[in-house]
Amino acid sequence: MINLGNLSPNKGANKQRKRLGRGPGSGHGKTAGRGHKGFKSRSGSGIKPGFEGGQMPLQRRLPKRGFTNINTIKFSIVSLSQLDSLEEGAKVTSESLIKQGMANKGLPVKILANGEISKAVTVTVEKVSTGAKAKIEAAGGKVVDVETK
Question: Are 108 and 148 within 8 A, CB to CB?
């Protein structure tokens, strides 16, 4: 009977590794299969990603375009149509939206005027667009300003 104590791989499934640099009798002594001299015989050799044999690599041939602002603030976007699924008179905060899976954790929340809202809700998030604020107040809701960090 086979159990964990007597398991073994099939014959020929496992192959011994090639032991390099272990004397002339091994067949892989002295230069250890690397040949004589040259870049590939050195330690730390190996072609790096992007190396094109001395030709100017693609990432250096292409022009640099655009600008990435490191101070930009990424927001987690929530639509008014998502807020309409909440109950009447609900207090909407960043934490409550994260709990309900409408916003991403770790990002400030911005509410956009996508869709319509018919319920009066109190919104306390980092940013609300002008159109969304107008629609929330038209539905009888309220928008409380919160300072962004």
Answer: yes
Gap between the Cα atoms of 119 and 142, Å rounded: 11
Do the domain assignments include residue 6? no
Over its C-alpha atoms, the chain yields an Rg (Å, rounded) of: 32
CA gap 116, 101 in Å, rounded: 20
Helix (H) or strand (E) holding 98: helix 94-99
Query: Domain for residue 137, yes or no?
Result: yes
Question: The whole model's pTM is what?
Answer: 0.56
CA dist., res. 99 & res. 105, Å (int): 9
26-46 per-position pLDDT tens digit: 999 999 999 999 999 999 999
Q: What are the distances in angstroms from CA 9 to CA 4, 115, 118?
A: 12, 62, 67
114 in any annotated domain: yes
The answer to whether the beta carbons of residues 125 and 90 sit under 8 Å apart is no
Answer yes or no: is 110 within a domain.
Answer: yes
Q: Beta strand 122-124 with 142-143: parallel, antiparallel or unpaired?
A: parallel
